Amino acid sequence: MPTYRDEVVVLRTHKLGEADRIVTMLSRRHGKVRAVAKGVRRTSSKFGARLEPFMVADVQMYKGRSLDIVQQAESLGAYGADIATDYDRYTAASAMSETADRLNEAETTPQQYLLLVGGLRALARGDHAPRSVLDSYLLRVMSLSGWAPSLRECARCGAPGPHEWFVAQLGGIVCSACAPTGAPRVSVETGDLLRALLAGEWDVVDAASSGATAASSGLIAAYAQWHTERGIRSLSHLEAPR
């Protein structure tokens, strides 16, 4: 059977039998991959710790009939330990991995892989608030998946902004003429923060008020869950931004 190598992020694992695991991974070149890692639950396993959630690895696999088989794994980014020791980091990473899993049922791009790796690295290092890292990831991955939110012009009629209402179902910021009754109103600071999160302007993100951070997080969560249709269960475990 043909073998292949790729860089992967481990999204989740499931027990299989007494010593094996099924590992779901987002790869750089082969999309989402599900593979069996044999014997990794034994204490003598040479690479079991490299195939835990949030770890980045260079793996060699060979094609199986239903599931591929992991033959080798070399660590490229041991982010799992630093993330797992902090609740906020762990829940943010879980939501990111779940989103990547949902969005890449059929295929992926190297940009989506690199975006997830960068987000997990930022969480492990504590570069920014975990919820801000998650929010930036959600906006960017939605854009890469073809669902870029409109954050200045009206998402419905295209009228130049900025505007003051946000409707996930309509695609983002909308003008007063297009906003349905009860639409959430967006302050100037929150609008600026949403655009900074999408653009990766971390000086603006880190300086934002707690009110704007909480408001933007709520809007982004609603937008992401609307487009993933089945929702992102991990978001329910996130604490409110402080």
TrEMBL record:
Report the GO terms under cellular component: bacterial nucleoid
Protein role: Involved in DNA repair and RecF pathway recombination.
Which gene specifies this protein's sequence?
recO
Q: Report the Pfam families cross-referenced here.
A: RecO_C, RecO_N
Protein name per Swiss-Prot or TrEMBL: DNA repair protein RecO
Q: What is the lineage of its organism?
A: Bacteria, Bacillati, Actinomycetota, Actinomycetes, Micrococcales
Per UniProt, residues of the DNA replication/recombination mediator RecO N-terminal domain are 1-78
- Origin species: Microbacterium oleivorans
Identify the domain of life.
Bacteria
Please name the GO terms of the biological process aspect recorded for this protein, alphabetically.
DNA recombination; double-strand break repair
Q: Does the keyword DNA repair apply?
A: yes
| HAMAP family the record matches | RecO
Q: Which SUPFAM superfamilies match?
A: ArfGap/RecO-like zinc finger, Nucleic acid-binding proteins
Tell me the protein family, please.
Belongs to the RecO family.
Which keywords accompany this UniProt record? DNA damage, DNA recombination, DNA repair
Q: InterPro entries from the entry? A: ARFGAP/RecO, DNA_rep/recomb_RecO_N, NA-bd_OB-fold, RecO, RecO_C
